[in-house]
Design brief:
The structure holds 2 protein chains of 2 kinds.
Chain A: H1 3-23, H2 37-46, H3 50-67, H4 75-92, H5 99-127, H6 140-162
Chain B: H1 2-23, H2 28-59, H3 65-100, E1 108-118, E2 126-129, E3 142-145, E4 149-157, E5 162-166, E6 173-178, E7 186-192, E8 195-202, E9 212-215, E10 227-235, E11 242-248, E12 258-264
Antiparallel strand pairs in B: 1-2, 1-12, 2-5, 3-4, 3-12, 4-5, 6-7, 6-9, 7-8, 8-11, 9-10, 10-11
Classes of the chains: A mainly alpha, B alpha+beta.
Chain lengths: 178, 270
């Protein structure tokens, strides 16, 4: 990546971190389910920019860990590991760059993040004696649905504006384009 | 898999290193310095969120506003009467003090702070401010809005920032009296979602709807007569030794951007 790309990605990561740490608590209640960081990580991998994804996970995670009002449970580690999982899954399991593939990646990342939250809760509250507050498990449903919507918007925007991915094969051609 | 393995090793190494440095507190000065750098934008982000909240509420419609205005006018009427009586008592108190030659009372200084982040979960009530132990703050100090509306207290302190637990948070407890009296009558406990409940009020205590509850001054670092809230419903079972009252905060903490922390001054002889 070029220097300007690193600067742009760092700026985006800071914006994501400030949104999740500072702005989210002040916005109207329905924004609580909009968590754009993980869909953005998936988006970076779809654009074949793994460095951008890891940089985003690190920078935005550090912002949240430092200035969130409630303990964030070392979210930097969670997001870095989520980026690693997305990297491995998109490389070896979901190899095509499709809308459904991006949905599966987002779903995998969010479920992995949920498992990490449970692990963090056990470690913080029972092993370390510190307070870590988790959200109700039922919140995962709207968060996942909005994640799917977000990645769909990003994917379709790139497809329509850049034609970087093919989302369909015309019906007049055969299944394999012959 | 080589790239992912290398990346995984690096990530695990960084995570373990940072965890170790954090647990041994070696990295604390770096964290505090980073918080200091990040705080100004955090404050801006919080304000932006508050502006969006306010606009969303206005856009939701004006149907409830007339009813709210009527209710506010009724409260103003009650408060006006209380104000007049309290003002008269205050003047009388000052005259008596001068006559008796009392030493200057223990007072409080206020440190103004910006809110840089809020808790995301609606059932909890925390926010982080951009002042910390380097500004003289300590855990347990009262946080107020305006001239004397109690918002919460500091529960966690860093060098440059602090976490405030609001009165509406389920972990919050504050000792209260009725306005104008300096007698402990109960506790206000947070119930989450912006609500609080006054509990352990003895049956013989006479309370009414619209009565103002204030801090009792029995807690260290929390001065008396800070307004905690207004009673809007009383739960009174004659078989219970205590009664309870739903408390309505007099300020909407969701829209606050700036608060003040009260620092007790040392008692000065006259």
């Amino acid at each position: 990546m070029r220097i300007t790309s690193y600067i742009a990605v760092t700026g985006a990561a800071l914006a994501l971190g400030y949104y999740e740490a500072s702005m989210l608590g002040s916005l109207p209640g329905y924004f609580i389910f909009f968590r754009p960081t993980i869909p953005f990580l998936v988006f970076c991998f779809l654009l074949k920019r793994p460095q951008a994804a890891y940089l985003t996970a690190a920078v935005s995670g550090i912002v949240v860990d430092l200035i969130a009002a409630t303990p964030s449970g070392f979210i930097t580690a969670r997001w870095l590991l989520a980026a690693l999982i997305i990297d491995m899954v998109q490389e070896y399991a979901i190899t095509n760059k499709s809308l459904y593939g991006s949905w599966l990646l987002v779903l995998t990342a969010r479920l992995f993040d949920g498992l990490m939250i449970i692990l963090t809760y056990i470690i913080f509250n029972y092993l370390m004696g510190r307070l870590f507050i988790t959200e109700p498990a039922v919140f995962m449903i709207p968060i996942v649905l909005i994640d799917l919507f977000t990645i769909s918007v990003l994917f379709l925007a790139v497809t329509l504006l850049t034609k970087r991915f093919l989302t369909f094969i015309p019906f007049e051609k055969g299944r394999y384009g012959s | 898999m080589t790239r992912q393995i290398k990346t995984g090793v690096i990530i695990f190494g960084i995570i373990l290193a940072v965890l170790l440095l954090h647990l041994t507190k070696i990295i604390y000065p770096v964290e505090d310095y980073a918080r200091r750098l990040l705080s100004p934008l955090g404050s801006l982000a919080t304000r932006a969120g508050v502006v969006v909240s306010r606009e969303a509420k206005h856009a939701a419609g004006n149907a409830d506003y007339l009813e709210q205005i009527d209710e506010l006018y009724r409260q103003i009427q009650h408060l006006s009467v209380d104000y007049v009586q309290l003002h008269a008592l205050k003047e009388e108190n000052e005259v008596l003090r001068r006559k008796l030659g009392f030493a200057e009372q223990q007072g409080y200084e206020a440190v103004v702070a910006n809110i840089i982040s809020r808790s995301v979960q609606p059932e909890r009530g925390f926010f982080m401010i951009d002042r910390g132990s380097k500004n003289g703050l300590e855990t347990g100090m009262a946080v107020i809005f305006g001239d004397g509306i109690y918002v919460g207290k500091i529960t966690k302190i860093f060098d440059r920032t602090a976490v405030v637990t609001l009165t509406t948070d389920p972990a919050s407890r504050v000792a209260i009296s009725l306005a104008g009296q300096h007698r402990l009558i109960g506790l206000v406990e947070g119930k989450g979602n912006g609500t609080a409940l006054a509990t352990l009020i003895p049956q013989e205590e006479e309370i009414e709807v619209n009565d103002i509850l204030v801090t009792s001054g029995t807690e260290e670092k929390i001065p008396p007569d800070l307004v905690v809230g207004m009673i809007n419903q009383i739960r009174d079972e004659s078989t219970d030794p205590f009664k309870e009252a739903n408390i309505e905060p007099v300020v909407q903490t969701a829209y606050l951007n700036i608060v003040a922390v009260l620092l007790p001054k040392v008692l000065k002889p006259e």
